[in-house]
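Hey everyone, long-time lurker, first post.

I ran two proteins through the pipeline my lab uses and got sequence/structure pairs for each. Pasting them in order. The first:
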Amino acid sequence: MTSLWLTLRAVSEAAGATPSPLTVDGGLMLWTLFVFGLLWYVLKRSAWPLMLRAVREREERLERQIAEAERHRAEAATLLEEHRQLLAGAKAEAQEILARAKGVAEKEHAAIAAKAREEAAQQLDRARRDIAEEKAKAVLELRREAVDLSMAAAAKLIEARLDSDANRRLVTEYLDTLGSRS
């Protein structure tokens, strides 16, 4: 490049002019326009259609990619909405299951409590019957003891043995009359 510049400088000095960037050289301008036109014609015939076709193909490819991206976005939005609905349905179903489980648990609790109360009442009734039976046995035993003690006391007083069956009946009747008074 430097040698070209030096050559141009030498030519211009030989011509007797100093090169100035503001001076217009008509011959140079014509050659520049000719070379530009020739280059433009060659490019228009050979390279320009290839470049336009490449630009169009790229534009079409970008449009397809944009359309495909839009379609994928729409599908993703649809899937997201489906997932949201499924999640809402699952939450509702879980709440329903929990509510049913609570209801069943409350029913079971009530049934168990009722059964426990019933068993307690049965045990209480059984205990009362057992107490009544034991009381009756104790009263009967006390009467026998009282009869025996009374007979022993009477036998000591009389110092004679009386008929034990008749005496026993007599004392039992007397104790019954005492029991009916109270």
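...and the second, right after it:
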Amino acid sequence: MNTPKKIKLVLAFLFCIAGILDGYGQTYLGFKAGVNATQISFNSEVYKKFYDSEIVPGLSGGIVFLMENGDKYGFYTEFLYSIKRKSVVSHANDYESNKANYHFIDVPVMFRVKFKEKRFNWFLQFGPEISYWLGGTGAFNVYQPNRDVFTTYEYKIHFGNEQNTFEYMNVEDANRLQLGLAFGGGFIWDLNNANYLSLDMRFSLGNTFMGGYESGSIPNSGLVDNFEYTNNVLSVSAVYYFDIQEKFRLSKNKYGNK
């Protein structure tokens, strides 16, 4: 499925949510911070056979927005900055590993269902996630048997016109706009005075390749990188948010009584 069709599906999903939440009752704003674990999934059977993709930790944080209808159904979105890491090791021979840190802006758009309990609430949610690849850094560690030494090539991700120095990884035909599916759940605790604390657990399944087959290269080194893969990300985060309308009402009552 090409990118325009995927975007049309995302828009259709948003229209469905808008219909469900017509006449929503509460709006919330908040902040989120957490950790993630990423493992990439190659498309090429050759890479799957000869390269090991390791699970590596990362970070994310940003702002959240929630609209609820009848304290049951909700529309939940975030604007996040995230670091997703990659670690690939060749087991076809003993001479190569590639570890990288990539930076993204992530915007998940999810439909939420909340369930009430006596001491806390819990929820399930799912929906599309749109990400934009900002760039990143990495390092190839290469064994040179003729010298019996390891050589490290540190690089910066570069989009656009080719750079002719080994300090850069030139990425041709990068898919900087990424689409995926996010789903998960969590718990919510009422902190009183319209404040809430949430534990959010989520799995994001990538649906867009980062780029083409061996479309990344470091000039003057002979090293290439295969970007024909997707990101699979498990994240756990803490979220603080507050009821905007209730906060305004409490503030108005507080200062109005003086």
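Reply from user beta_strand_b:
Welcome! Quick read of the second one: Helices lie at 3-20, 45-50, 244-256. The two ends are 61 Å apart (CA to CA).
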